[in-house]
Amino acid sequence: MSNKKTTYGKGLTLRVMLVILYSGVFLMPAVIFSTLTSGVSVGGSVSFVVAFLAIELAALMGSSLSKQEVFILWSCSGVAATDVIFLSLLQNLYFRSISSVTWQFKSLDTSLPLPLAIPDWFAPPPNSPVLLLRTFLHQDWLLPIAVTLTGWILSGKVIDLALGFLFFKIYSDEEKLPFPMQEVTAQMILTLPEEKSSKKSMLTITALIAFVYNILLYAIPFVTSFSIVPIPIPWMDFSNAFESFLPGATFGIATDLLTFASGFISPLNVVVSMFIGSFSFFFIGNYFATRLGLFAWTPGMNLSMLYQRSILYVWAYPNIGLAIAAALIPIITRPKYLVGAFKSLSRFSSLSSEKGELSLLTVFLLYLGSSIIIILIVMMLTGFPLYIAIPFILGWSFISSMISTRSVAVSGFQVTVPYVREALILASGYNHVDIWFAPMGSSGGAAWWASWFKLSDLLETNYKDIIKGQIFASIVAIVFSFIYVSLFWSISPIPSPLYPAVDIYWPVNILMSGLWITGAISTVNAVQTIIGTTLVATAVSLLTEFLKIPFSLIGFLIGTSSPIPTSVTAILGAIFGVALRRFKGENWYRENKSVIGAGLFLGSSLAITIGVASAMILKGGWSLPY
Hints:
24 helices; globular; two-stranded antiparallel ribbon; mainly alpha
């Protein structure tokens, strides 16, 4: 047995900070451009590309980056380039004062058109000069910016940090869940700097395959403004093939290679449970829901529309019940892990100090202090009942973070249960518009923090370096999102022919929100449905565990919360993994699956980034004055 002591090294160095700054300065414009022109988010590709470029640049200069440095720049560069908070503010302005869709809805309490009822602390009013000036440097923006940034920092950063660390301790240190995608990322970070090895060759081959595929999938459509689409994005939709005998049923295959890779990497029982959940809800369940008239169906409806309508009118409340059951089951069946995590945090040892761990008191103060401030903000901005706001802000942020983190720890997929906040507001009976726009809700970022802490362990990096790196990256993101969103907005109005995706995708969000705000979504039997689903799901999960049936409730929930093509492609990835295991042997598969996954992620990221950069260069001339 080895007595070698693990040393947790420093990763946040000056050169890493320069790379993070580079991401904000040079890559954020590509992220914004892609969002405004195609509606496609390329955020996930940024981190891999930056890590690859930094490693190669260091090698050209006769130097090398430590694994700790590569990890910090990988995890923080994506935040610096993709946390475009001022684009969210602009989307709020579009919601209230630009889109004609919003005027179709009326406030329940005043019967005023929605744009006239939305509070000024959410976005400037329809008669604001900012619409003509196209600038954030105006007094009408003071309150919206203050409220949005405060909510983003407290909910999206501080609370997520505290809960992410707590659930990391539970799921990694105590329960020892696999965190499969973090194993893949760690393998990439360790393999890329190698000069020659069998793993480096495997990484290169799989990256090349992924690169070619994603040039066809993403780069060509980006460059040609989607006039040429060799492979459908984001999925191949076969729903219409079933509508003559199974109306309402959805079926398709996601074309994103990263979904395939996730299915290949994740535990088989999780992916199978995920497919069962998605197929039972969106294929079989949708058919029966259509027959019962639970949501409107017309021939020719595509998969996206069927998914959105079925979630809104049929599956929102059952999914909330499933989520609650998924949170309860680990506490019921394995309470020792929760107790063990709290005991571990309360015993702050010399090793804890060396690793940069947060104490139990620090976690508690960050979580409770930030939650109290958010509750006070909600009190100041709205008249929403405190007896509902307090348990929701404190309780649901805890439960949703537990669910999303566990889903990542088990499968690599992050589950986000939709419409919990909306259902709670409707069920409360509070009919003033203000609460719908208050910064009250969980961002789901705890799973990201838990992932970063897991990688810190795998790559022997001090935890405080990832925390400080994320703080620095967030500051970079705030500063440059202000600069670049202002720049894009000054070049041309948003929306405009230069930014066509805005009028394609943003009205869909308005339509969804408007249906909830105006009470068009029924809450009849909502509580009974949630409680009933929770009890049934809990009973089934306990029974399958007792009978040793490898059913995963969290996998089932991932399937019921995402479109069926995601689960279909994931199960195809799992089948490929089973075939590879049988063909090459269990040992080869165990040693190489993370390398293969890393290559697929790296090649995909490079192709997406090149495609966006090429499109940006080719289309950039449209806005020039000559």
